[in-house]
Amino acid sequence: MSDEVKKSDKMSRKEYEKEMEKLQVELCILQDWVKQEGLRIVVVFEGRDAAGKGGLIRPMIERVSPRVFRAVALPAPSDREKSQMYIQRYIPHFPAAGEVAIFDRSWYNRAGVERVMGFCTEEQHQRFLNLVPLVEKMMIDGGLILVKYWLEVGKEEQARRFAARIDDPLRQWKLSPMDIESWRRWDDYTQARDEMLMVTDTPHAPWHIVRSDDKKSARLNCISHLLSVIPHERVHKDKVKLPKRPAKEKYDAAAGLAGRKFVPEAY
After folding, report:
1. In angstroms, rounded to a whole number, what is the distance separating the alpha carbons of residues 55 and 198?
2. How far is CA 40 from CA 33, 138, 185, in A?
3. Long-range Cβ contact pairs of 138-142 (< 8 A, separation 24 or more)
4. Residue 153 CA, distance from chain mean position
5. pLDDT in tens, 151-167
6. What is the pTM (predicted TM-score) of this model?
7. N or C: which terminal CB in the chain sees fewer CB atoms within 10 Å?
8. Which positions ≥6 away from 215 have C-beta within 8 Å?
9. Beta-strand relationship, 40-47 and 99-104
């Protein structure tokens, strides 16, 4: 275990939230810069089941505008989408100027779950690996900023998280039949991961590995890293000053609500 993880193990919830708030402030600064400069950013999160992708994305987007930072988590492809060019269903979710699209799983499904679970042929898998570095080069040459993260969770920690999902009604929705089946295919996923990294960890679109056994450490380290790889500056803003309201109201604001159905105030 690295010193970074050991340090996070000792981090209290209060310390974690203090550090996260600093990063979220910086994300707001990045947001202003993205809007001003018209940047188009794609962030890809991949990893094994229960690696912590969703839990990392949540604090990344909770303090910024959903019109700028957008999380993309696509369901399984429909029969129509299966007949399309493979990457076609992802393209409509790519960002326009002034937007950040964050993919919770992406086109790399073909290198992972589709490869392991037999949802694509060997030929389709190999064609994907051959083409994706070229496609990503075209994306970047076209002005997109592409940042790719692989969340690496250990075998024992993954087992602990799966067990927690079984008993926790707030997490049971995270367990699908696919998750259960993938549970026993640890080695197959390791092989698929290594094949993917060997071909798609390119100079123009490198993978960044995030150790995610410790959730707090993973979230802080990843967001900090994202902020470091996207150059940005604080955008100057004039200080907002609220104008005075008329001293006398023209209408009785409460009168228009009289007799309406209010939600019972049970709390």
Report:
1. 27
2. 11, 14, 36
3. 139/42, 140/204, 140/205
4. 16
5. 999 999 999 998 888 88
6. 0.91
7. C
8. 52, 55, 56
9. parallel
